[in-house]
């Protein structure tokens, strides 16, 4: 350790060493240091500190400054990401649709011609407002599009944005919801303020039921943030100030939960119903989506539209996309009709599963499905026909008898409903005739038949009890309506209802039993065909009933064979007929395409 000495006094001529070094044991290495530090020496010795006060302060405070600065940086960054500052929570999140994006026009929307006519009037008014004002008409302030999911409500709104040459704002109903109180109402006010600045303009609110639910609903009380947002929306749409030039287009699939004040004229003047497409609409939708896919010449879109009753526009788009994926999996250059059929069955019933089944289970399943198929082919239903029968598991079912509508089904008669119950009973009877025992495989059939019979008695008046509604309460709890309701009929009437349901099912059970007994040989041949081919079409069942055997070839959509791996020497072994058969697996169905 070193000591620095400074001298002061009269004897400035005395030379003193600048530094004196201590040894490790603390002794001085120079004896003159004792003389210099003696009391008689006029020179004083003092020790200079190794660090100053400023350095000590920096060492103690600087780490805290670094930590505080880092926390401040992270906090401000989070605020900017959350809403570009702490004061922007009440700003609207409506997005202005830019024109450089891919635009959608009315020609891209198919299957809802009436809805397009309704919303096209709004576009015409924005393009030529004098056309309506000359005769005293005014444009609707709000258009509410109602329909099941996947029917094209949002797509139609995009088409309005593409056709109208005005600013178009889009926002979701959930964007008004925030953890802070009053933010939803503030965002509504800011959204309409932006609309007034850009008037005339269109505003699209998707899933408006998120903020437009009926007020006072539920079991609790107190203040509700959602009701504040709804009140602000009601005032902005048709309040004291009004919103001239701002047209609201909203979409929902739950119009029953919306507040009645929101649906009145002056707010939503027009309700546009976008229902599931009919046969013509489905064909037009398929043609629109088929333009983007390489389709074979054997694909009949009219037939596809006929067998896809109940499909929405989104389902049909998914159908063609799944067909393209199936064709790509089979290494095909274009989509064929067999790929579309497989994609349709996959969407409607689930994908085939090669589940391990022993011979007894497979045989019982074959006779079960043969019973369904035989009944459906014999009853000659004018609204539905047998499409395909399979014993390959799909979804949760071990086998399936698939039917397709032959026309647009708008309602069912009593005769049609009795045929459905009779077909449901055919599987249990077919299994009982072959095995002599029952299984739980008919659980869903029994449940379906019981549900139809109960509705015939209680809801539709198709029994000896007459046209009396005896159904249960179907109100929703969250609508603040009746939560429960006591039984509105006596115990004697309940016994009569049970007897009628039992009578209907028992009569159809006996009817199905007689039909299968009369065509016992055809039933056995259908089951044998299922055990051989695993899947047959409805026409094959009709051929067995009429001719006693299958006349047309049974075709399947099989994947290409897997090539054998090359040997180490790089030469491939030539494939023989036996090798190809082993690679393909045991299959009795010839490859080909359905007619």
Automatic annotation (TrEMBL):
One of its GO terms (molecular function) is ATP hydrolysis activity. This is ATP-dependent zinc metalloprotease FtsH. InterPro entries: AAA+_ATPase, AAA_lid_3, ATPase_AAA_core, ATPase_AAA_CS, FtsH, P-loop_NTPase, Peptidase_M41, Peptidase_M41-like. PANTHER family: ATP-DEPENDENT ZINC METALLOPROTEASE YME1L1, METALLOPROTEASE M41 FTSH. Residues 139-278 form the AAA+ ATPase domain. Homohexamer. One of its GO terms (cellular component) is plasma membrane. The lineage of its organism: Bacteria, Pseudomonadati, Verrucomicrobiota, Opitutia, Puniceicoccales. It comes from Ruficoccus amylovorans. Its EC number is 3.4.24.-.
């Amino acid at each position: 350790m070193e000591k620095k000495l400074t001298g002061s006094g009269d004897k400035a001529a005395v030379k003193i060493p600048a530094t004196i070094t201590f040894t490790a044991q603390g002794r001085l290495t120079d004896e003159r240091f004792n003389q210099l530090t003696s009391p008689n020496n006029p020179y004083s010795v003092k020790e200079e500190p190794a660090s100053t006060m400023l350095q000590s302060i920096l060492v103690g405070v600087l780490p805290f400054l670094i930590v505080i600065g880092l926390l401040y940086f992270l906090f401000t960054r989070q605020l900017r990401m959350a809403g570009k500052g702490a004061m922007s929570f009440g700003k609207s999140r409506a997005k202005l649709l830019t024109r450089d994006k891919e635009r959608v026009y009315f020609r891209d929307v198919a299957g809802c011609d009436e809805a397009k006519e309704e919303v096209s009037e709004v576009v015409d008014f924005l393009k030529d407002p004098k056309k309506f004002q000359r005769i005293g008409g005014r444009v609707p302030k709000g258009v509410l599009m109602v329909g099941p999911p996947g029917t094209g409500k949002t797509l139609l709104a995009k088409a309005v944005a593409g056709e109208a040459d005005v600013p178009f704002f889009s926002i979701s109903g959930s964007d008004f919801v925030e953890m802070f109180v009053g933010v939803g109402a503030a965002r509504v006010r800011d959204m309409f303020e932006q609309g007034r600045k850009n008037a005339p303009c269109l505003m699209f609110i998707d899933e408006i039921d998120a903020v437009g639910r009926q007020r006072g609903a539920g079991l609790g009380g107190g203040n509700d943030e959602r009701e504040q947002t709804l009140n602000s929306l009601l005032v902005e749409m048709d309040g004291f100030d009004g919103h001239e030039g701002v047209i609201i287009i909203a979409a929902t699939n739950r119009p029953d939960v919306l507040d009645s004040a929101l649906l009145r004229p002056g707010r939503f003047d027009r309700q546009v119903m976008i229902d599931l497409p009919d046969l013509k609409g489905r064909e037009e939708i398929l043609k629109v989506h088929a333009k983007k896919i390489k389709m074979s010449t054997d694909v009949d879109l009219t037939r596809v539209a006929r067998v896809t009753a109940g499909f929405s526009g989104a389902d049909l788009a998914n159908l063609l996309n799944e067909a393209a994926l199936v064709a790509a999996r089979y290494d095909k250059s274009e989509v064929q009709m067999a790929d579309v059929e497989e994609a349709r069955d996959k969407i409607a019933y689930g994908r085939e599963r090669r589940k391990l089944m022993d011979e007894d289970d497979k045989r019982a399943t074959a006779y079960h499905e043969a019973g369904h198929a035989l009944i459906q082919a014999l009853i000659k239903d004018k609204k539905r026909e047998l499409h395909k029968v399979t014993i390959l598991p799909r979804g949760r079912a071990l086998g399936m008898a698939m039917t397709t509508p032959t026309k647009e089904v708008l309602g069912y008669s009593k005769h049609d409903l009795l045929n459905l119950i009779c077909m449901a009973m055919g599987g249990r009877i077919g299994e009982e005739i072959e095995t002599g025992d029952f299984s739980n495989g008919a659980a869903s059939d029994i449940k379906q038949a019981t549900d139809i019979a109960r509705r015939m008695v209680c809801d539709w008046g198709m029994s000896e009890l007459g046209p009396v509604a005896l159904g249960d309460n179907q109100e929703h709890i969250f609508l603040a309506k009746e939560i429960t309701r006591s039984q509105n009929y006596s115990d004697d009437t309940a016994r009569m209802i049970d007897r009628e349901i039992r009578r209907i099912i028992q009569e159809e059970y006996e009817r199905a039993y007689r039909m299968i007994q009369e065509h016992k040989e055809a039933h056995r041949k259908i089951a044998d065909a299922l055990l051989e081919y695993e899947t047959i079409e409805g026409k094959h069942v009709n051929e067995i009933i009429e001719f006693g055997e299958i006349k047309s070839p049974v075709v399947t959509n099989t994947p290409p064979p897997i090539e054998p791996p090359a040997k180490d020497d790089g030469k491939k072994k030539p494939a023989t007929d036996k090798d190809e058969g082993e690679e393909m697996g045991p299959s009795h169905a010839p490859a080909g395409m359905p007619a």
